[in-house]
Write a structure and sequence with these properties.
heterodimer; A: 7-stranded mixed β-sheet; about 50% strand; B: mainly beta; 3-stranded antiparallel β-sheet
């Protein structure tokens, strides 16, 4: 059974940093694209970033470019999202999701809440 | 970042068939697969339709997807009260190199 478990939730002040993690199990993690998707309170889903199987390609939504960095450790079956210069509008539940191709979001974790507030 | 266009709301009575549309462009729906998700409050999105209108195991065949040109649709037949939820479409967009989502459609079962 595919399992994706996010961690790293927290309350952070504007301008601060936070690192999210996603632990994967139940599938061959190294051969899947991995994504971060978020949902702000009362808002719709927004794709944040994804990373190719070997980490050679990374793509980001415009609003986080230069502030967020996606990475992965295939030896640890783990995905990460380093978030810097956080803003109030980054407040959301963040989900990790896996897919066989760049545009796929086949399996999802349960999400972790990031709150940016002073 | 561009978005896919969905109606904000849809409704139907139990047993009815409803469809939710998703309009895009040649750089997304016109050239890539469309995925459909169901979101209940406080829960993670659930995949209903992925890639070429495939359903994950466990998703009933009451749910079906279709595509035509730069538009896609999700059809739900035999509507049930438990289908009341938010529905989102998504597709890879070649012009922005990213996944774009529709704004979501809130389905009400009357």
């Amino acid at each position: 059974e595919v399992q994706l478990v996010e961690s790293g939730a927290g309350l952070v002040q504007p301008g601060g940093s936070l690192r999210l993690s996603c632990a994967a199990s139940g599938f061959n993690f190294p051969i899947y694209w991995m994504n971060w998707v978020r949902q702000a309170p009362g808002k719709g889903l927004e794709w944040v970033a994804n990373i190719k199987q070997d980490g050679s390609d990374k793509f980001y939504v415009d609003s986080v470019k230069g502030r967020f960095t996606i990475s992965r450790d295939n030896a640890k079956n783990s995905l990460y999202l380093q978030m810097n210069s956080l803003r109030a509008e980054d407040t959301a539940v963040y989900y990790c999701a896996s897919g066989q191709w760049a545009g796929d979001l086949d399996d999802w974790g349960q999400g972790t809440l990031v709150t940016v507030s002073s | 970042q561009s978005v896919l266009t969905q109606p904000p709301s849809a409704s139907g009575t139990p047993g009815q068939r409803v469809t939710i549309s998703c309009s895009g462009s040649s750089s997304n729906i016109g050239s890539n697969y469309v995925h459909w998700f169901l979101v209940l409050p406080g829960t993670a999105p659930k995949v209903l339709i992925f890639r070429k209108n495939e359903r994950p195991s466990g998703v009933p065949d009451r749910f079906s997807g279709s595509m035509s040109g730069t538009s896609a649709s999700l059809a739900i037949s035999g509507l049930r009260s438990e289908d009341e939820a938010d529905y989102y479409c998504a597709a890879w967009d070649d012009s922005v190199n990213g996944v774009i989502f529709g704004g979501g459609t809130k389905l009400t079962v009357l």
